[in-house]
């Protein structure tokens, strides 16, 4: 059986974690995997989450199965955060808890394949390297169009327009709701408005990946584009992650919401999601989602979580300003949002950054600005200059 298998290369991003951990140099900078770090380089459990976990520990009286939908209180409490307090989608939503945003993307892909086998998904390049493999693994077809030009650090909107013009009615378009991974470049309001109108006019189905809400400009601000698109279209999917904004990375907390045309289609979709989850993971792990639900049920914990989110966002944007101030060639980083920016560099240059300077970023030049500690900007800029990246 297994003799037919071909060895797979380790995942490049996860490999970076190992490489960084095994580097014994006293001073090293981890700009690799997308994890928030505080000024001391730690990724602590949020206080609001700790408080919710304490309540959970004291009050949970059973670990019996919940069902393939997971914690319905969790998905219900997320709704106003994502779609707005006065959203008009009631009755058209089919939502279920998933193991992280990745689980939501994969389950959404499985649903698309069940609804229309071989559906084509349009991806802007560059995008998170796991997007295409997830969709392909579910049997979907991929077509890419340019999204951003790293030389100019700007959206290639002609490329996006051309990509959407090639799409056929019923095709799916993957969109980053905010804090684009890997570039930190988001569409402007005018561009989002044009995209929403094009999706609606051409009957394209948006699949929005919303993994960093609150880490760009604020909870409401970061959901603006998602809400605009959902107002314009009849059908959509939203893959949500609480990994970053609740700091729950390894607990894998996410949700998939499908927006259907009407209540009947939403109900049928919900049965399909439950059936697909049953054969994938049966039911999602409970702990992290239960902690998020408890935070969202209690105004005191919501206030604590929002304050912690403000601190994280403030630090990310201060790191952006520090890099932009350190070299005019990095000025664009100030206006980008979320954990990432993508510098134009070769793989050899990124290897030289880690090999010679103990500064770790991905082979494609993505840096996690939340990985910097105070005072790192100078060393990063010096290393980038030394390796010809600036
Ligand atoms: C990242 O892009 O670094 C994160 O989303 C972690 C991951 O799973 O790739």
Automatic annotation (TrEMBL):
Q: Which domain of life is it from?
A: Bacteria
| Domain Aminotransferase class I/classII large, residue spans | 27-383
List required co-factors: pyridoxal 5'-phosphate
Q: Which UniProt keywords apply?
A: Aminotransferase, Pyridoxal phosphate, Transferase
UniProt key word Hydrolase: no
What biological processes does GO assign it?
L-phenylalanine biosynthetic process from chorismate via phenylpyruvate
> Does the entry feature the keyword Transport, yes or no?
no
Residues of the signal sequence? none
Q: Name one Pfam family in it.
A: Aminotran_1_2
The record's Gene Ontology cellular component field reads: cytosol
Which molecular function GO terms apply here? Answer: identical protein binding; L-aspartate:2-oxoglutarate aminotransferase activity; L-tyrosine-2-oxoglutarate transaminase activity; pyridoxal phosphate binding
Quaternary state and partners of this protein?
Answer: Homodimer.
Q: Hey, which family's this protein in?
A: Belongs to the class-I pyridoxal-phosphate-dependent aminotransferase family.
For this entry, the protein name equals Aromatic-amino-acid transaminase
């Amino acid at each position: 059986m297994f003799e037919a298998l071909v060895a797979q290369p380790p995942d490049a991003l996860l490999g970076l974690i190992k490489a960084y951990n095994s580097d014994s140099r006293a001073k090293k900078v981890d700009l690799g995997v997308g994890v928030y770090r505080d000024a001391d380089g730690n990724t602590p459990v949020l206080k609001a989450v700790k408080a919710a976990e304490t309540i959970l520990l004291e009050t949970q009286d059973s670990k019996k199965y919940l069902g393939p939908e997971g914690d319905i209180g969790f998905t219900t409490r997320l709704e106003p955060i994502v779609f707005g307090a006065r959203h008009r989608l009631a009755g058209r939503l089919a939502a279920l808890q998933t193991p992280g945003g990745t689980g939501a993307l994969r389950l959404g892909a499985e649903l698309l394949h069940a609804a229309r086998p071989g559906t084509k998904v349009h991806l802007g390049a560059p995008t998170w390297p796991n997007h295409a493999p997830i969709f392909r693994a579910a049997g979907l077809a991929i077509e890419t169009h340019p999204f951003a030009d790293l030389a100019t650090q700007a959206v290639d909107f002609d490329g996006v327009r051309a990509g959407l013009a090639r799409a056929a009615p019923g095709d799916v378009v993957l969109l980053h709701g905010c804090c684009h991974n890997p570039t930190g470049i988001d569409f402007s309001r005018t561009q989002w408005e044009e995209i929403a109108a094009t999706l609606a006019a051409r009957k394209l189905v948006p699949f929005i990946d919303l993994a960093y809400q609150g880490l760009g400009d604020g909870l409401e601000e970061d959901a603006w584009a998602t809400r605009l698109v959902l107002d314009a279209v009849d059908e959509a999917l939203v893959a949500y992650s609480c990994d970053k904004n609740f700091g729950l990375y390894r607990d894998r907390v996410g949700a998939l919401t499908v927006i259907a045309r009407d209540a009947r289609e939403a109900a049928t979709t919900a049965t399909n999601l439950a059936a697909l989850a049953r054969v994938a993971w049966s039911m999602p792990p409970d702990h992290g989602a239960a902690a998020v639900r408890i935070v969202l049920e209690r105004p005191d914990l919501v206030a604590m979580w929002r304050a912690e989110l403000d601190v994280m966002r403030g630090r990310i944007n201060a790191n952006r300003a520090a890099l932009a101030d350190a070299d005019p060639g990095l000025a664009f980083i100030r206006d980008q949002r979320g954990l990432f920016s993508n510098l134009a560099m070769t793989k050899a240059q990124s290897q030289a950054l880690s090999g010679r300077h103990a500064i770790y970023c991905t082979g494609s030049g993505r840096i996690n600005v939340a990985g910097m500690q105070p005072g790192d900007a100078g060393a990063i800029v010096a290393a980038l200059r030394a390796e010809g990246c600036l």
